[in-house]
């Protein structure tokens, strides 16, 4: 019988993190980038909960996971507002074309 | 009142006028009414100085109060040791008397000026200048050392310069200011040298320490000649400031300043600073130095009196009479009549300030007419000015019941005693001659200005008595010219409190062999006879007693003659002055042109300086400039060479560096795409690399 342990959770978390980073780096649409960020945050959440379950940290990990979820919501709100403003300024949300930082 | 409180009050008195000056000079433009603040400050200073004088003279009459602190400490070499330069006050009887005189006259002049200077475009600045002058003058009065004396000495010179040149748009005024400044500088060089002789020997500037050293037999460079030289050189400062011959030429020109300034600075207080200096150094004067001082003073008083006979400008007459009276004081110090010299300084300050302010009142009401040939008949129009002017004139002429008689009589008795004891009879002869001349020219002035018929009817019709703020100072000063303030006995100054209680002639400190015989202490028995007063010998005291009545009758006679002749010439017209002038034309011209001294200086000193300057200019143009130009050529060549080096070597290196940096930059700028996603990739790879290198797990 296959035993599900800490390692499995960490592997899932690592896969999710990598997918998130991949999304952040490769997507052209800003909304998609934000979704990548969301994945990264959730991979961190899985880590927290896994360590909370298998480690000796008590419930601290779960509490922090709740905080991260709240934080992610707040961040999404602000980020979407920024994206809306970017759309108003540049008429698109293509992050490839928004390279004014260069100047 | 404790001594420290007295000192503190003196510090306040000293710095009040400075406070007035700074306030008025910085805020005067914004708040024009500030001149009243300056006047009020002088009023407070006057009150405080009256308190100080009263306390000092009544409680600490025989005690000198000294307060000092070390200003600079320098040197630790073994042979000269540590030199401490002290600043401080010495408050003795003459200090508090001077304090009172200076503050009183300064206050009255401030009040007088409120009306006299009204409408002037630099009105507030004028009061600021008066403030800085009063501050400097009080500094001279209060100091206990030669260095501070010198500093404030130059400060009064500066304020005098500023006030003579107050109407600087007038060329004559700015010229007179420069002349006063430069002529004073000549005297000050001597004073500086004298101070340095004393400082080299004693390593201190403090009067009392120097005098103790001299009294202990420690004289500069072990030679009496150096002591004499130090005395005469410091006296040179007084020659400049007190307008003694041959440096008196600046004072009459200084009358270009506003008239109240002439009263304050060039008649009553600043020019008396020279006399005050000699009073301070009196104890270290040797017989030779005193003889020089007596001769200079006597000659000055004669020269100035003869010039004053023929001047037609009301202020010029008063200026020369000031020079003449200053000569009197200096002569009096030279003949050892110390107390009477200082007494005359005080009485002269009051009546001369009154005369000058009176002339200011006349000038003010006659619309700046100063020529006495155009005045006349003002007695009825300006009664207050007339009577105060008359009282002061009686005082300066030496008529009994007035202050001038007391002090002049004492001085003349002193010269007479000096003539009898030393055989220098010329000095008393000059003294009595000048007394007669003074009475003559002063009454000439009064008669021509106030008596007779008006000569300029138009201006006379517009004349009017001056307002209250101008006449009140006149009245105060005239009242102070009456004998009762100084002595209860109108013919004997020695019975009065000023001479008997307040001004004490100090004992000489110079070695016995360098003193006049009459300045040597007498034998023990003789000392006992005159109650321990060992300042002068017994013979001197006796001779002074002998000289008292002859001097008095003689001075009365010559003064009476002078007044009589003045009335004969100008009032009753029994004698014709013009005809007399015609008859002795060369003498008349000699006097009218001030002994041709200005011309003489123009031809000698000034022409000499100018030709010396042109030689120096030639030297500058040809030789110094040649050297400078030559070095310029060399410098230019060197510059060219280094320019080449710069262009090719240094610039080449710099340009290469720049090019290289640019090249590197070009290659690296590819990395900066401005795309967030690229940066994130960099960050992730960086983190991975860091993790690989540092292996935190």
What does this protein structure show overall?
The complex is a heterodimer of chains A (103) and B (697). By secondary structure, chain A is mainly alpha-helical. Chain A is built from 3 helices and no strands. Chain B is mainly alpha-helical. In chain B, 72% of the residues lie in helices and 3% in strands. A two-stranded antiparallel sheet of chain B has the order 1-2. The longest helix of chain B is centred in the last third of the chain and has 73 residues, at 597-669. Chain B is elongated, with a radius of gyration of 34 Å. The A-B interface holds A 21, 24-26, 33, 95-96, 98-103 and B 672-677, 680-681, 684.
Alpha carbon gap, first and last residue of chain B: 89 Å
Query: What is the overall pLDDT average of chain B?
Result: 85
* General shape of chain A: elongated
Helix content of chain B: over 70%
Supply the helix-strand structural class of chain A. mainly alpha
Question: Roughly what fraction of the amino acids of chain B lie in strands?
Answer: under 5%
Average pLDDT figure of chain A: 87
What does the radius of gyration of chain B come to?
34 Å
Order of helices and strands of chain B: HHEEHHHHHHHHHHHHHHHHHHHHHHHHH
User: Which sheet architecture does the biggest sheet of chain B show?
Assistant: 2 strands, antiparallel
The end-to-end distance of chain A, rounded to whole angstroms, is 59 Å
> Given the structure, what is the number of helices of chain B?
27
Please state how the strands of the largest beta sheet of chain B are arranged side by side.
1-2
Biggest interface reads: A-B, 13 and 9 residues
Q: How many beta-strand segments of chain B?
A: 2
Helix content of chain A: over 70%
As a whole number of angstroms, the C-alpha radius of gyration of chain A is: 17 Å
Number of helices of chain A: 3
Oligomer: heterodimer
Which overall shape of chain B is indicated by the principal axes computed on the Cα atoms?
elongated
The helix-strand sequence of chain A is HHH
């Amino acid at each position: 019988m296959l035993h599900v342990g800490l390692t499995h959770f960490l592997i899932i978390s690592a896969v999710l993190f990598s997918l998130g980073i991949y999304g952040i780096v490769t997507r052209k649409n800003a909304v998609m980038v934000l979704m990548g960020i969301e994945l990264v945050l959730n991979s961190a959440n899985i880590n927290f909960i896994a360590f909370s379950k298998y480690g000796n940290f008590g419930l601290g990990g779960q509490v922090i996971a709740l905080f991260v979820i709240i934080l992610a919501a707040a961040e999404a709100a602000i980020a979407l507002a920024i994206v809306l403003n970017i759309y108003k300024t540049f008429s698109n949300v293509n992050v490839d074309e928004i390279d004014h930082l260069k100047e | 009142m404790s001594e420290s409180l007295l000192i503190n009050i003196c510090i306040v008195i000293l710095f009040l006028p400075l406070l007035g000056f700074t306030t008025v000079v910085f805020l005067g433009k914004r708040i024009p009414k500030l001149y009243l603040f300056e006047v009020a400050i002088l009023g407070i200073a006057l009150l405080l100085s009256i308190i100080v004088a009263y306390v000092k003279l009544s409680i600490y009459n025989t005690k000198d109060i000294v307060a000092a602190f070390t200003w600079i400490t320098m040197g630790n070499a073994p042979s000269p040791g540590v030199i401490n330069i002290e600043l401080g006050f010495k408050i003795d009887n003459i200090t508090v008397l001077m304090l009172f005189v200076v503050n009183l006259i300064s206050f009255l002049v401030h009040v007088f000026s409120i009306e006299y200077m009204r409408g002037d475009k630099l009105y507030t600045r004028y009061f600021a200048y008066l403030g800085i002058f009063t501050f400097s003058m009080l500094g001279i009065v209060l100091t206990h050392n030669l260095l501070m004396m010198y500093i404030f000495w130059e400060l009064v010179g500066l304020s005098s310069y500023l006030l003579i040149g107050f109407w600087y748009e007038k060329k004559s005024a700015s010229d007179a200011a420069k002349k006063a400044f430069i002529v004073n500088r000549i005297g000050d060089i001597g004073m500086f040298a004298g101070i340095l002789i004393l400082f080299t020997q004693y390593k201190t500037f403090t009067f009392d320490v120097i005098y103790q050293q001299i009294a202990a037999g420690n004289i500069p460079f072990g030679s009496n000649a150096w002591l004499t030289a130090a005395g005469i050189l410091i006296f040179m400062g007084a020659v400049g400031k007190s307008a003694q011959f041959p440096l008196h030429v600046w004072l009459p020109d200084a009358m270009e300043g506003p008239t109240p300034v002439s009263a304050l600075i060039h008649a009553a207080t600043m020019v008396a600073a020279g006399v005050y200096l000699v009073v301070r150094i009196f104890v270290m004067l040797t017989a030779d130095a005193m003889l020089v001082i007596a001769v200079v003073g006597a000659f000055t008083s004669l020269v100035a009196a003869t010039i004053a006979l023929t001047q037609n400008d009301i202020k010029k007459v008063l200026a020369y009479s000031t020079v003449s009276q200053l000569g009197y004081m200096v002569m009096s110090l030279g003949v050892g009549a110390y107390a009477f010299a200082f007494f005359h300084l005080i009485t002269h300050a009051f009546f001369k300030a009154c005369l000058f302010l009176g002339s200011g009142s006349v000038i003010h009401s006659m619309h700046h007419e100063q020529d006495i040939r155009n005045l006349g008949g003002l007695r009825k129009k300006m009664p207050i000015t007339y009577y105060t002017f008359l009282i002061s004139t009686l005082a300066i002429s030496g008529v009994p019941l007035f202050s001038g008689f007391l002090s002049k009589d004492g001085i003349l008795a002193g010269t007479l005693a000096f003539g009898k004891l030393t055989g220098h009879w010329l000095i008393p002869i000059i003294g009595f001659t000048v007394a007669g001349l003074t009475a003559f020219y002063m009454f000439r002035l009064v008669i021509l200005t106030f008596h007779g018929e008006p000569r300029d009817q138009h201006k006379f019709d517009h004349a009017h008595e001056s307002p209250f703020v101008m006449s009140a100072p006149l009245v105060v000063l005239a009242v102070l010219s009456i004998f009762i303030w100084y002595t209860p006995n109108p013919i004997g100054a020695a019975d009065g409190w000023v001479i008997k209680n307040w001004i004490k002639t100090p004992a000489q400190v110079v070695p016995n062999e360098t003193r006049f015989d009459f300045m040597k202490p007498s034998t023990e028995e003789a000392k006992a006879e005159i109650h321990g007063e060992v300042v002068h010998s017994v013979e001197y005291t006796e001779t002074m007693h002998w000289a008292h009545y002859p001097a008095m009758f003689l001075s009365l006679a010559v003064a009476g003659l002078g007044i009589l002749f003045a009335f004969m010439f100008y009032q009753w017209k029994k004698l014709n002055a013009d005809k007399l002038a015609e008859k002795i034309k060369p003498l008349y011209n000699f006097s009218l042109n001030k002994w041709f001294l200005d011309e003489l200086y123009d031809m000698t000193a000034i022409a000499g300086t100018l030709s010396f300057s042109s030689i120096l200019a030639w030297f500058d143009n040809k030789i110094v400039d040649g050297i400078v130009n030559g070095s310029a050529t060399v410098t230019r060549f060197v510059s060219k060479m280094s320019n080449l080096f710069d262009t090719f070597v240094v610039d080449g290196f710099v340009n290469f560096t720049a090019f290289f940096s640019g090249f590197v930059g070009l290659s690296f700028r590819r990395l900066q795409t401005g795309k967030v996603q690229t940066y994130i990739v960099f960050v992730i790879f960086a983190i991975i690399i860091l993790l690989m290198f540092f292996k935190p797990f």
